[in-house]
Design goal:
Layout (H helix, E strand, L loop, with lengths): L2 H9 L11 E5 L3 H7 L4 H22 L3 E8 L7 H24 L2 E6 L7 H14 L5 E9 L1 H14 L7 H6 L11 E4 L18 E3 L10 H12 L11
Parallel strand pairs: 1-2, 1-5, 2-4, 3-4, 5-6
Protein backbone atom coordinates (compact mmCIF):
# COMPACT_ATOMS: atom_id res chain seq x y z
CA UNK A 1 0.00 0.00 0.00
CA UNK A 2 1.33 3.42 -0.97
CA UNK A 3 2.23 5.73 1.92
CA UNK A 4 -0.39 8.31 0.93
CA UNK A 5 -3.14 5.68 0.91
CA UNK A 6 -1.95 4.24 4.23
CA UNK A 7 -2.04 7.66 5.91
CA UNK A 8 -5.58 8.21 4.68
CA UNK A 9 -6.67 4.77 5.85
CA UNK A 10 -5.31 5.46 9.36
CA UNK A 11 -7.20 8.77 9.54
CA UNK A 12 -10.45 7.85 7.81
CA UNK A 13 -12.37 7.70 11.12
CA UNK A 14 -11.23 11.23 12.00
CA UNK A 15 -10.98 13.12 8.71
CA UNK A 16 -13.52 13.23 5.88
CA UNK A 17 -11.26 13.22 2.83
CA UNK A 18 -14.15 14.36 0.66
CA UNK A 19 -14.36 17.64 2.62
CA UNK A 20 -10.75 18.69 2.95
CA UNK A 21 -9.97 22.41 2.91
CA UNK A 22 -8.75 22.96 -0.64
CA UNK A 23 -6.51 25.84 0.43
CA UNK A 24 -4.84 26.14 3.84
CA UNK A 25 -3.01 29.36 4.77
CA UNK A 26 -0.58 29.49 7.67
CA UNK A 27 0.84 32.35 9.72
CA UNK A 28 3.99 30.82 11.19
CA UNK A 29 4.11 32.57 14.55
CA UNK A 30 6.11 31.86 17.70
CA UNK A 31 9.60 31.00 16.43
CA UNK A 32 11.27 33.57 18.68
CA UNK A 33 9.25 32.70 21.79
CA UNK A 34 9.89 28.99 21.24
CA UNK A 35 13.65 29.61 21.02
CA UNK A 36 13.63 31.88 24.09
CA UNK A 37 11.89 29.16 26.14
CA UNK A 38 14.77 26.86 25.25
CA UNK A 39 17.43 29.43 26.08
CA UNK A 40 18.39 29.87 22.43
CA UNK A 41 18.58 32.84 20.07
CA UNK A 42 15.47 33.81 18.10
CA UNK A 43 17.27 32.84 14.90
CA UNK A 44 17.39 29.23 16.10
CA UNK A 45 13.60 29.27 16.22
CA UNK A 46 13.45 30.33 12.57
CA UNK A 47 15.81 27.50 11.62
CA UNK A 48 13.64 24.84 13.27
CA UNK A 49 10.55 26.60 11.95
CA UNK A 50 11.81 25.92 8.42
CA UNK A 51 11.74 22.21 9.26
CA UNK A 52 8.09 22.57 10.28
CA UNK A 53 7.32 24.22 6.95
CA UNK A 54 8.85 21.31 5.06
CA UNK A 55 6.99 18.75 7.19
CA UNK A 56 3.65 20.53 6.79
CA UNK A 57 4.04 20.82 3.02
CA UNK A 58 4.85 17.14 2.71
CA UNK A 59 1.94 16.03 4.89
CA UNK A 60 -0.61 18.40 3.35
CA UNK A 61 0.21 17.02 -0.07
CA UNK A 62 -0.15 13.43 1.15
CA UNK A 63 -3.51 14.20 2.73
CA UNK A 64 -4.83 15.65 -0.52
CA UNK A 65 -4.85 19.40 0.20
CA UNK A 66 -4.51 21.24 -3.12
CA UNK A 67 -2.99 24.59 -2.10
CA UNK A 68 -0.98 25.72 0.91
CA UNK A 69 0.20 29.26 1.65
CA UNK A 70 2.78 30.45 4.17
CA UNK A 71 3.26 33.95 5.54
CA UNK A 72 7.05 33.90 5.59
CA UNK A 73 7.96 37.59 5.82
CA UNK A 74 5.73 40.66 5.99
CA UNK A 75 6.44 44.20 4.83
CA UNK A 76 6.51 45.12 8.54
CA UNK A 77 9.13 42.48 9.40
CA UNK A 78 11.88 44.73 8.01
CA UNK A 79 11.63 46.56 11.34
CA UNK A 80 13.12 43.58 13.17
CA UNK A 81 16.85 43.51 14.12
CA UNK A 82 19.11 43.23 11.07
CA UNK A 83 20.75 39.98 12.22
CA UNK A 84 17.33 38.34 12.53
CA UNK A 85 16.22 39.58 9.09
CA UNK A 86 19.49 38.36 7.59
CA UNK A 87 19.01 34.92 9.17
CA UNK A 88 15.43 34.65 7.89
CA UNK A 89 16.57 35.36 4.35
CA UNK A 90 19.51 32.97 4.70
CA UNK A 91 16.97 30.28 5.54
CA UNK A 92 14.69 31.36 2.68
CA UNK A 93 17.60 31.28 0.26
CA UNK A 94 18.66 27.80 1.42
CA UNK A 95 15.12 26.40 1.25
CA UNK A 96 14.63 27.67 -2.29
CA UNK A 97 17.97 26.30 -3.50
CA UNK A 98 17.53 22.95 -1.73
CA UNK A 99 13.98 22.39 -3.03
CA UNK A 100 14.43 23.94 -6.47
CA UNK A 101 15.04 20.77 -8.47
CA UNK A 102 12.45 18.66 -6.65
CA UNK A 103 9.81 21.34 -7.21
CA UNK A 104 10.59 21.58 -10.90
CA UNK A 105 10.56 17.79 -11.32
CA UNK A 106 7.28 17.30 -9.41
CA UNK A 107 3.69 18.23 -10.19
CA UNK A 108 3.93 21.07 -7.66
CA UNK A 109 3.32 24.66 -8.69
CA UNK A 110 5.47 27.17 -6.80
CA UNK A 111 4.57 30.82 -6.47
CA UNK A 112 5.61 33.79 -4.36
CA UNK A 113 3.42 36.79 -3.57
CA UNK A 114 4.71 40.09 -2.24
CA UNK A 115 6.84 42.93 -3.54
CA UNK A 116 10.25 41.85 -4.86
CA UNK A 117 11.97 45.22 -5.00
CA UNK A 118 13.67 44.74 -1.59
CA UNK A 119 14.66 41.12 -2.14
CA UNK A 120 18.23 40.23 -3.10
CA UNK A 121 18.65 39.63 -6.86
CA UNK A 122 19.81 36.02 -6.44
CA UNK A 123 16.64 35.15 -4.48
CA UNK A 124 14.44 36.83 -7.10
CA UNK A 125 16.27 34.96 -9.88
CA UNK A 126 15.68 31.57 -8.25
CA UNK A 127 12.04 32.39 -7.49
CA UNK A 128 11.34 33.46 -11.07
CA UNK A 129 13.05 30.38 -12.49
CA UNK A 130 11.01 27.99 -10.34
CA UNK A 131 7.78 29.89 -11.00
CA UNK A 132 8.36 29.77 -14.74
CA UNK A 133 9.18 26.06 -14.80
CA UNK A 134 6.28 25.05 -12.55
CA UNK A 135 3.57 27.43 -13.78
CA UNK A 136 1.68 24.67 -15.62
CA UNK A 137 1.84 22.13 -12.77
CA UNK A 138 -1.59 21.29 -11.40
CA UNK A 139 -1.14 18.63 -8.71
CA UNK A 140 -0.32 20.86 -5.73
CA UNK A 141 0.44 24.54 -5.16
CA UNK A 142 2.86 26.06 -2.65
CA UNK A 143 2.44 29.81 -2.19
CA UNK A 144 5.00 31.79 -0.16
CA UNK A 145 4.21 35.34 1.00
CA UNK A 146 7.54 37.17 1.07
CA UNK A 147 7.77 40.92 1.71
CA UNK A 148 3.98 40.81 1.56
CA UNK A 149 1.27 43.02 3.05
CA UNK A 150 -2.44 42.56 2.45
CA UNK A 151 -3.27 46.27 2.43
CA UNK A 152 -0.41 46.94 0.04
CA UNK A 153 -1.69 44.22 -2.28
CA UNK A 154 -5.14 45.83 -2.37
CA UNK A 155 -3.71 49.28 -3.04
CA UNK A 156 -1.49 47.89 -5.82
CA UNK A 157 -4.54 46.22 -7.38
CA UNK A 158 -6.47 49.50 -7.30
CA UNK A 159 -3.58 51.35 -8.95
CA UNK A 160 -3.44 48.74 -11.72
CA UNK A 161 -7.17 49.13 -12.28
CA UNK A 162 -6.78 52.92 -12.49
CA UNK A 163 -3.91 52.50 -14.94
CA UNK A 164 -6.13 50.29 -17.11
CA UNK A 165 -8.80 53.04 -16.99
CA UNK A 166 -11.65 50.71 -16.14
CA UNK A 167 -14.89 52.62 -15.60
CA UNK A 168 -16.35 50.06 -13.21
CA UNK A 169 -15.39 46.71 -11.71
CA UNK A 170 -17.05 43.78 -9.98
CA UNK A 171 -15.55 41.22 -7.59
CA UNK A 172 -14.40 38.74 -10.29
CA UNK A 173 -12.62 41.58 -12.10
CA UNK A 174 -10.99 42.87 -8.92
CA UNK A 175 -9.73 39.38 -8.05
CA UNK A 176 -7.84 39.26 -11.35
CA UNK A 177 -5.69 42.16 -10.15
CA UNK A 178 -4.69 40.46 -6.91
CA UNK A 179 -1.43 38.52 -6.60
CA UNK A 180 -3.46 35.45 -5.62
CA UNK A 181 -5.58 35.55 -8.80
CA UNK A 182 -4.52 32.04 -9.83
CA UNK A 183 -5.46 30.31 -6.56
CA UNK A 184 -8.71 30.03 -4.55
CA UNK A 185 -9.29 31.90 -1.32
CA UNK A 186 -8.16 30.02 1.80
CA UNK A 187 -10.75 27.73 3.36
CA UNK A 188 -8.74 27.50 6.57
CA UNK A 189 -6.22 29.90 8.08
CA UNK A 190 -4.01 28.64 10.89
CA UNK A 191 -2.04 31.02 13.09
CA UNK A 192 0.18 29.28 15.59
CA UNK A 193 1.31 30.47 19.04
CA UNK A 194 -2.14 31.51 20.25
CA UNK A 195 -2.24 34.99 18.71
CA UNK A 196 -5.63 35.79 17.19
CA UNK A 197 -5.20 38.28 14.36
CA UNK A 198 -4.49 38.32 10.63
CA UNK A 199 -1.53 40.73 10.82
CA UNK A 200 -2.17 42.09 7.32
CA UNK A 201 -2.19 38.65 5.67
CA UNK A 202 -4.60 38.07 2.76
CA UNK A 203 -7.05 40.67 4.08
CA UNK A 204 -9.35 40.46 1.05
CA UNK A 205 -9.05 36.72 0.50
CA UNK A 206 -9.91 35.69 4.07
CA UNK A 207 -13.40 37.25 4.18
CA UNK A 208 -15.03 33.83 4.73
CA UNK A 209 -12.04 31.79 5.81
CA UNK A 210 -12.31 29.61 8.91
CA UNK A 211 -9.76 30.79 11.49
CA UNK A 212 -7.89 28.40 13.79
CA UNK A 213 -5.52 29.55 16.54
CA UNK A 214 -3.60 26.70 18.22
CA UNK A 215 -1.39 27.68 21.15
CA UNK A 216 1.54 25.59 19.91
CA UNK A 217 4.50 27.61 18.63
CA UNK A 218 5.37 27.14 14.95
CA UNK A 219 8.53 25.01 15.43
CA UNK A 220 6.36 22.41 17.22
CA UNK A 221 3.61 22.46 14.57
CA UNK A 222 4.00 19.27 12.56
CA UNK A 223 1.89 16.51 11.00
CA UNK A 224 -0.28 15.79 14.04
CA UNK A 225 -1.08 19.47 14.56
CA UNK A 226 -2.06 19.85 10.90
CA UNK A 227 -4.44 16.91 11.22
CA UNK A 228 -5.97 18.44 14.37
CA UNK A 229 -6.53 21.71 12.51
CA UNK A 230 -8.31 19.92 9.67
CA UNK A 231 -10.48 17.96 12.12
CA UNK A 232 -11.46 21.22 13.84
CA UNK A 233 -12.21 22.81 10.46
CA UNK A 234 -14.53 19.96 9.50
CA UNK A 235 -16.58 20.52 12.66
CA UNK A 236 -17.40 24.07 11.56
CA UNK A 237 -20.70 24.97 9.87
CA UNK A 238 -19.74 27.06 6.85
CA UNK A 239 -22.81 29.05 5.73
CA UNK A 240 -21.20 32.00 3.90
CA UNK A 241 -23.87 34.36 5.23
CA UNK A 242 -26.80 32.08 4.36
CA UNK A 243 -29.08 30.03 6.61
CA UNK A 244 -29.24 26.29 6.23
CA UNK A 245 -32.66 24.76 6.62
Amino acid sequence: MRLKEKIKENLQDQIDFNRLPAHIALIMDGNGRWAKQKGRLRTYGHKIGAESLTAVVRHAKKLGVKTISFFAFSTENWNRPKDEVDEIFRIVRKLIKDKKNSLIDSETKFMVIGERDRLDPDIVKDIEEIEEQTKDHTGFTINIALNYGGRGEIIAAVNKILADKLESIDEPTFRKYLQTASIPDPDLLIRTSGEQRLSNFMMYQCAYTELYFPKVHWPDFREKELEEAIIAYQKRDRRFGAIKG
